[in-house]
């Protein structure tokens, strides 16, 4: 699949916004801790990925009803759905000067019907002339996402026979429909009812 930048300028994928608030002190503090003195962008990206995937619980797995969506809130509460975790990882990577895009998939629900749109990221690491998608949703039985630049190791490869879709657009900011659902939900059950099933 060919990934398509929504915005031609690479600088757009380094910007801070309301959700990817990488100028927030907690995000900056986390970046400093993760760097640990290294200047290697690959090692840093892998460490940031592991932190978000493994230490921030996916609220559907943990049962947490809170809806965090801003990167700094996700880091503070250690909680969030895939979109929130993607915002946190994007903030950590952009703050370190690594261009990061938001990506989406349309996935089927457990009953085979359309499920909520799934969020992940893509990175453009130094020396690579392409974007690499990463999914820090969090692993559980049946989900084994990995930091991999050789082959995609996403939480859920799409199943076209079920109508699932990988959207090729690399978004510089969260998709408005996703962000609206996150911002307006009082709790996770309401969020599941309002997240878009397609973009």
Automatic annotation (TrEMBL):
The UniProt entry, under InterPro entries, shows: Papain-like_cys_pep_sf, Transglutaminase-like
Q: Which domain of life is it from?
A: Bacteria
Question: Which positions fall inside the Transglutaminase-like domain?
Answer: 30-135
Q: What is this protein called?
A: Transglutaminase domain-containing protein
Q: Which organism is it from?
A: Streptomyces pulveraceus
The beginning of the lineage is: Bacteria, Bacillati, Actinomycetota, Actinomycetes, Kitasatosporales
